[in-house]
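Example 3.2
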Amino acid sequence: MHGESARDKEITRNITTQLFEDTKLSSYGKNIDIATIDGKTTLRGRVVNSANKEDILSFATRVAGPGNVIDQIVVDDISAAEKAIDR
């Protein structure tokens, strides 16, 4: 079966809920695109640091299961970018 099943939608919804309830996660990190198809969850987007990325991956793995998370998250070092602009 290909496409988003009811279970896929439930996985995506549960990950999204956990991300929005996490007070440690930056608002930037809460804008991750989450798609689950055939039980495989893809995470795509940008976060401000590796801690945010690890939190998101941890949430997704707990919900979707080990081996079912595809990581396409990019860490943007916002502080380095701001320092470059200030020069």
